[in-house]
Structure formats: structure tokens, C-alpha cells
Amino acid sequence: LSVEIVATKPYEGQKPGTSGLRKKVKVFTQPNYTENFVQCILDANGAALAGSTLVVGGDGRYYCKEAAELIVRIAAANGVAKLLVGQNGILSTPAVSSLIRHNSALGGIVLTASHNPGGPENDFGIKFNCENGGPAPDAFTNNIYQLSTAIKDYKLVRGLQIDISKVGVSTYDVAGKPFVVEVIDSVANYVRHMEEIFDFAKLRDFVSGKSTGKPLKMRIDAMNGVTGAYVREIFLNRLGASDASVVHTTPLPDFGGLHPDPNLTYAKDLVDTVAQGDYDIGAAFDGDGDRNMIIGSKAFFVTPSDSLAVIAHYLEAIPYFQKNGVQGFARSMPTASAVDLVGKKLGKEVFEVPTGWKYFGNLMDVGRLCLCGEESFGTGSNHIREKDGIWAVLAWISVMQHTGKSIEDILKQHWSVYGRNYFTRYDYEECDLEPCNEMMATMEKNITAAEFVGKNYSSSGKSYKVKQADNFSYTDPVDKSVATKQGLRIVFDDGSRIVMRLSGTGSSGATVRLYIDSYEKENVLGQASVMLKPLIDIALEISELPKFTGRNAPTVIT
Ligand code: VG1
Ligand code: CO
Prior knowledge:
By secondary structure, this protein is α/β, with parallel strands linked by helices. The chain folds into three domains: 4-186, Alpha-D-Glucose-1,6-Bisphosphate, subunit A, domain 3 (Alpha-D-Glucose-1,6-Bisphosphate, Chain A, domain 3); 189-418, Alpha-D-Glucose-1,6-Bisphosphate, Chain A, domain 3; 420-557, 2-Layer Sandwich (TATA-Binding Protein). The chain is 33% helix and 26% strand. A hairpin with a 3-residue loop joins strand 16 and strand 17. The longest helix has 16 residues, at 433-448. It is globular and about 75 Å long. The mean pLDDT is 95. The site of cobalt (II) ion has 7 residues, from loops.
């Protein structure tokens, strides 16, 4: 087979966001659009690319298969020695991360727009993960973007025929050199990895009811995303849960019209079902399987910030940590600081990084971080370099088994020890970009003015005094790289916080995210929406959000 050089022209806007490049399918299917971006990803690897192994797979959304086949032809032409491709192009994001690490691959190309809706009219995405299994850091993605603005041609082995629907190894001769494509079972490696981390025998006895006399009643909703295949193998086949425990387990190109974003709005079906039934635990994942939502009996909601703190508290219940020890913890800046309190009590380092999993990788690589999370339903550990939805559910079932308590009781006990961080996030989706930029600029100017610190704000009988305000910037403790403008942040005297930033994962317009975090030592059993109302009103006043966006209510509350 021979290599063809195809002339092309740059497209504007091939700039990866918080987690890869995400655009409408119609954008990706323009002539050479995907080809350009893939070529730039490969070029960004420089000399390391020749003779390397790469992992390729995605969440099964519309255009995944076509893109995977295209990547095979472009990678072959660029001197890559071997590709590991998920069967039918299917691999969850955590599975890709695990595969990269287990195969000492140079990296992986993940085909997903994560929690964004799929289908011909909706979103597609491409993300590159590096050698450590984690999302490419800023310097790397900036390089991809720079290359995309100047690309003149890409390489292609047009005649390479590949059938990714069948597991097996194919070897090709590309310009005199062997090129290997191994189509792999999408779930086998990941399931093995989970079995190394958790005590599956113990969990099986717990789930089936052998050790308690009563089967654990669960409802696991894969929302027609990629986790379906993994969920069936792990919860049904390995842990012996009943068939009715899992739903929506067929990955579909348009997610069957569902919006696989595990939160109280988009996973409403799960929440309603668990609220009405006699379930012990409910869980849902996003399209690519890195996010998770955990709810207890009667749909008792566990905020992701609390979930992280509870898992941190009980890490000793998980064999992986018994064996490897417990290093530090971390959370993204907008995430409520519940885990900080656990870290303090256990004498562990706690890091606060910008939004996006790529910022956790370095700390894990040098052995300072073993557990981290984000308020956006992301939880994970140093077993891989991505957040991991199924891992989080297995961690929670381990905690339930270990304590013998219900999810609600676990939380209530946690709050009685540590106090409670009430937290909410308001999303204003698909706003016009210009007024949002103006709003952020105005607010930044106001909150960084000298007289802002010390100011008092009151609402509904509660008063808050500004202690600190800035646009968050972060210096990576390991490689000293600096990330600036990571979100506007107002911290009050009592530790309560208002955070505001624009999303970096949308495919059109602007999404404003407003995060509210308020700590209470004693008053831990209140209702979050009531407790946070005064601070929300203050945030809307300071930001003048209704004026700039024309919105009087958020599109999603989590
Ligand atoms: C969002 C979340 C962020 C998460 C990112 C990727 O980013 O807020 O915490 O890391 O999505 O998650 P943004 O820039 O839209 O706020 V995933 O599951 O979509 O890869
Ligand atoms: Co995701």
C-alpha cells in the first residue's frame, strides 16, 4: 500500500477546549475537516510518532466509526506502527486511558463529545490523550491548534481496507513497512483492571445478598452511552446483579434521543424511578463513561463534591489503596471544598486545580495525588488519568459494603463529623457569546478593583463580607506551567464562594456556569436550594447576569 499526500487548507477554530475539539457533526464532516485535525494531532507528537502504538476508540456516537476508519488510514500513512482499535470503534474514555497505560502506547485518540447530545444534528468530538493516559496538557493542545492554522497537506493510505466490527489482528505493508491494526474487545481490559482494584468476590456477595441476606437493589442507567457494554459485564456477569438492575445499556449513535449527562435534569428518568421504588442506589453515566451521578434510596442526591469527600474518607475500604497507599487529594477550583476537610483530618496534601482532568495528571505521575474530582460529576483515582464513572459506582458500593449503611446515613454521618458544603451550579446554556464576554470582563474589573475586598453583601437576612476575589490562575507544582483566567472567584469571610466561568466544552454560543459553595458546621440538614438562595441572589447582583444574558433562570441546575 502506498502513501498519498493530499493537499488541504486550514479551517478556523480547530482549538481544543476543556477536553478536546467539540463541534457539530456537520462541521466535522466538511471536506478534510477531520483529516486536518487528525494530521495535526499526529504532527504534534513530533519524532515520537514513528513506530509508535496508539489507541483509538470512542463513545459510539454518530460518526465515530467513520472517524475511526479515517484515523486508521491517516495513522498508517504517518509511520505509526500499531493501532489498538475498540471493536466497532467503541471504547469508553476511562477504558482508553487504561489501555494506553497497559500497552505503553504513545497516546490515544478519543472520539467523543462526552455529555453533549449525539446524532447527525448534534455534536462530535476528538480528543488526544498522552502517554500517561491523560488528556493532552495545554501546551500540547495549543501546538495542535497552531499546526491547524497552517496545515497544507495530510497523509493518507487511501486503499487500506479495514473491518473494525471484528476482533482480530491485521497486518499491512505500508510503503515497505509493517503496519498493524488490532481490533480489540471493548471491555475486557477495563473489566480486568477493575477486578484488580476492587474486591469483586466481596462485592458479589454483597450485591447478590449472600453476605447480608438481602440483594442490593440498584438501578444503573447507562443512558444509551458507551458504558452499556461495561455495565452489563461488570454488574450482571461479574457481580451477579439482576437483569432489571441495568437499563439503557445499548450504545446508540444518537443515544436513543437521551441526553447522557448524569445530573438531576438530564437523568430525570433515573431520579423519578429511584424516588418511587425501593432502590438502595441509583447511578448514571455520561456518553463516554467518565462522569457519574450517585443517588441513594428515594433519590437522595449525593453532590459530586460530597461524593469525593466520602470516598476519600473511606479509601481504606478499597484493596487498591490498601496496597498502594493513600497520597494526596485534589479537586477543581469550582468544586466545593468538602474533600479539603478530609485531607486536613488525614494529614494529606490537597490540591486545587483549574477545571478539566488534564490538570490532575502531573501530580499523579509524581506520586502526590491518588484521588480527585470535579463538581461536574467527575470522580477518579490514579489507577488511570481520566475520571471514571464505573469506578466511582464500584467505590460507592465498596463503601456501602464496608459501612453496612445506606447512602443517606453515610452522608449524614459525614456531615456530622466534617460539617457540610452546600453546593449548586447554575448553567445558562447557549447564550450569545459577545454579551457574555462583556459580562465576564465587567465583573473581573469590578471584583479586582481595590475597594472590592472588605465589601459587605446582604440578602434574605444573611450577610457576607468579601475576603478575596480574583480570576483564578494556577501554577502546576510539577512542571511549573501556568494556566491563567480559569474563572472569576469571590471568597467570603466564612469561606463561602461564588465562582463564575464560561464553559469550554460547548459547540456553539456561550454557556455561563455559576457555582455557589457555602459551608455550615452545625446546620447540616437544610435544603440546598434554600440555604444557597441568599448567595445566589448576591451572585446575580454582582455579575448583572440577567442584564447581560437576558436570562431570568438557568437552563440546568445541578
Ligand atoms: C465541563 C466540566 C468540567 C469537565 C469537562 C469535561 O467543562 O465543567 O469539570 O472536566 O466538562 O468533562 P466546561 O469547560 O464545559 O465547564 V467530560 O465528561 O465532558 O469530558
Ligand atoms: Co465525559
